[in-house]
UniProtKB/TrEMBL annotation:
Organism field: Priestia aryabhattai
A Pfam family hit: Metallophos_2
Superkingdom of source: Bacteria
Family to which the UniProt record says this protein belongs: Belongs to the metallophosphoesterase superfamily. YfcE family.
Gene3D superfamilies named among the record's database cross-references: 3.60.21.10
Gene Ontology CC annotation, any one: cytoplasm
Name this polypeptide is given: Protein phosphatase
Length: 246
């Protein structure tokens, strides 16, 4: 059977990315798909881009990958923009919106946030209607099987790893490699089945959590005087989003 590792939301956290890639290699998995947000929040966006370009078979665009290449008014974002080369900016601008393929008879679709937008955030606790909307075909999705909607959706963006079975379909969030907001360990998942096979057969989704050197990640950010340092430390140590009030 074929195995594909799916990662997302690295956010310039090099120690977390290296720990995840080491685990993937140890499992002898040679195919990796990335669901975006390579950059921002953490200090090593540039190195992250270069690694993802080398290691990932397909990378789709995340919201950070989009707006980091556009004019910015916030000083923190400008700081992250200055870390990128023109070649890296061009790479981010050309990332596809989504990727689709067949595996063990299932139509699998992957994107960063939703089939409608890079900025349409849907959490695992949102209404059934909102969660089911993630299976819709839109002008932005590839729709490789015409009007057929996907059987499996994998997405990133919300930094909360989960799997739900809804009305015969499977919805899963990959979680975050570099900025998890559910558990302070790097997250990714593994798909296992017969790739590009339209005949139904065994299929599985495995979630993996990887401890990594959080103190090293914090020191890397401190050493370059990264803006928004304290909120970043809070998120890495507690897996609690900086925007929460209590």
């Amino acid at each position: 059977m074929d195995k594909i590792a799916v990662i997302s939301d690295i956010h310039g956290n090099l120690p977390a990315l290296e720990a995840v890639l080491a685990d993937i290699q140890q499992r002898d998995i040679h195919r990796i798909i990335c669901l975006g947000d390579l950059v921002g929040k953490g200090p090593d966006s540039s190195k992250t881009i270069d690694i993802i370009k080398e290691k990932c078979e397909v990378t789709v665009m995340g919201n950070w990958d989009d707006f980091i290449t556009k004019p910015a008014e916030f000083e923190a974002l400008k700081w992250h923009q200055k870390k990128l080369s023109s070649t890296q900016e061009a790479y981010l601008k050309e990332l596809p919106f989504s990727v689709e393929f067949m595996m063990s008879g299932k139509l699998i679709r992957m994107f960063h946030a939703s089939p409608r937008s890079l900025y349409d955030r849907i959490q695992p606790w949102d209404s059934l209607e909102k969660r089911l909307s993630l299976f819709a075909n839109t002008e932005y999705t590839e729709n490789i099987k015409g009007s057929r909607e996907p059987d499996v959706i994998c997405y990133g963006d919300v930094h909360n790893a989960f799997i739900q079975h809804i009305k015969g379909k499977t919805l899963c969030n990959v979680g975050s490699v570099g900025n998890p907001l559910d558990l302070p360990q790097a997250s990714y998942l593994i798909l296992e089945g017969n790739d590009q096979d339209e005949s139904p057969s065994a299929f599985s989704i495995q979630f993996v959590r990887i401890p990594y050197d959080i103190e090293k990640a914090i020191e890397l950010a401190r050493s370059v005087e990264m803006p928004d340092f304290e909120p970043y430390v809070q998120e890495l140590k507690t897996a609690r989003y900086r925007g929460l009030k209590n």
